[in-house]
Amino acid sequence: MKFEKICVIGLGYIGLPTASTFATHGLQVVGVDINPHVLHTLRSGGLHIHEPGLRTLVQAAIGSGNLKISETPETADAFIIAVPTPFYDDKRADLRAVQSAAEQIVACLQPGNLVVLESTSPPLTTVNVVAPILERSGLKAGIDFHLAYTPERVLPGQILRELIENARVIGGIDAASTQAGRDLYATFVRGEIVMTDATTAEMVKLMENTYRDVNIAIANEFSHLAERFGIDVWEAIAIANRHPRVNILRPGPGVGGHCISVDPWFLVEAAPDLTPLIHTARQVNDRQPVHVTGMVREAFGLEKDAALQGRRIAALGLAYKPDVDDLRESPAVEVVHLLSRAGAQVVAYEPFKPQPELPGVHAVSSLEEAVQDAELLLLLVGHQVLRQQDPYLLAQATPARLAVDTVNGWSTQDWSKAGFQLFRLGVGRAERRWNTSTTVSR
Questions:
Q1: 7, 205, 321, 353: the active-site residue
Q2: E runs forming strands in 350-432
Q3: Mean residue pLDDT across the chain
């Protein structure tokens, strides 16, 4: 199947790179978004998200005349839905953006078109949610138009490379839809294109992220055990991973982002009776921000549930992972909220997004401003720029002499020499080791 013009609905972390990549590979692309800020920024030559190389790609796509930014879809050969799929407070998938995007396509849908859902969704969304909406056009899915699902499988910070080089899974509602999807993405994908059915493709994406979530949960539980037993979990993990069939992941302040922290809930929602392990892993990881606030209380010498009234804390890093500006579902943000609700005066600094618009978060645009009045420094994200901070220079810039490291980014020896008392997630206090009845004395 040949494609000359496509319409990409949703110009976020996946939609914008996808639209721009298609455009630079010769297709006419209409990029659609309903956010006025996104539309204005792109039309003004700016960029609303941070991703290495993306600015150059977008400018090339728009400059070529192949990428047009619009508020509404237009008739095209293919439509790609790449909108967010968050969840409600009760962890049910919020598919309103997917439904709205499908409804926008109805008026433009023509016989022979291809519609692709890229948004991560619960199993059967393509068949049971998207298809019925599109069929309001009077056309029948699998007969009059093609319909497929393909999950994005890219890593923030490496999206442009992985979009092209990673294996791509295409799942259609029938064989012809799968082939049409393959033909479209073969425009730029150099990795293997794996063809299956739509529901399997949906399941694959959820399985990948759920697998990682469960493994992070056991790493977080190991960190709790290490604290109780008075050992260093990072050392223990490094030793355990010498086993040829063991690969324990890294513990941390929680799990964030729009994939790993969200996708497992879609499986729990779809089959709660079959997912006790997945459900428990999600609960373990969701509780990590509470654990971190407990570490902060311990650093101040306070009891478990004591208030932090008036304590001045510099929270370093707000993104959900190192060296990106993506704050979606970030556990660091949740930690800041918890500390603030406990009465602390928290000043946050995110080097990749110096002025984030986050309700309830007091963020500043420089590290110096964040630490200048702090009593405690809290490392929440392992950004390279934060991990490499010189503790001796920081000691001159802040009155704080307490530090909490939740990502194994700072050296106890170096920070101690600089005059700080450093508390590290997953590392038991020496005095605690000899007081616990579960530890055998040496």
A1: 205
A2: 363-364, 376-379, 402-405, 421-424
A3: 94
Please state at what angle helix 198-229 crosses helix 263-270, rounded to 10 degrees.
Answer: 110
pLDDT above 50 (res 436) = no
Last residue of a domain, one of 156, 191, 226: 191
Question: Angle between the 233-240 and 198-229 helix axes, to the nearest 10 degrees?
Answer: 120
Look at residue 132 and give its three-state secondary structure. helix
- Rounded distance, CA 10 to CA 63, Å? 20
Q: Is the pTM of this model over 0.85?
A: yes
Q: Is the pLDDT of residue 332 over 50?
A: yes
Q: Would you state the structure tokens that stand for residue 154, as one six-digit string?
A: 């890219």
Q: How much is the average pLDDT of 89-106?
A: 95
Q: How far apart are CA 331 and CA 99, in angstroms?
A: 28
The one-letter amino acid at 72:
T
Same domain for 283 and 408? yes
Beta-strand ranges (E) seen in 20-84 are 28-32, 67-70, 78-81
7 is catalytic: no
The neighbouring-strand residues paired with 314 are: 347, 377
For 278, the domain range is 212-431
Are 312 and 345 within 8 A, CB to CB? yes
The DSSP-derived string for 252-309 is: -S---TTTTTTHHHHHHHH-GGG-HHHHHHHHHHHTHHHHHHHHHHHHTT--TT---T
C-alpha 169/C-alpha 195 separation (Å) is 6
- Residue 435: the pLDDT is 39
Which residue among the candidates 2, 91, 140, 259 is catalytic per the annotation?
259
* DSSP H stretches of helix in 141-262: 159-165, 175-185, 198-229, 233-240
Q: What token pair was written down for 248?
A: 């324990």
The structure tokens listed for 170 are 């295409």
CA-nearest of 261, 248, 309 to 289 is 261
CATH code, 72 = 3.40.50.720
Domain count, the chain: 2
pLDDT tens sequence across 156-168: 788 999 999 999 9
Tens digit of each residue's pLDDT (9 = 90 or more) over 18-31:
999 999 999 999 99
Mark 245-284 as b/e (b = at least 16 C-beta within 10 Å). Answer: eeebbbbbbbbbbbbbbbbbbbbbbbeeeebeebeebbeb
Note whether residue 197 is domain-resident: no
Give the three-class secondary structure for 36. Answer: helix
pLDDT bracket for residue 274 (50, 70, 90)? very high
Query: Known catalytic residue: 108?
Result: no
Does residue 14 carry a pLDDT above 60? Answer: yes
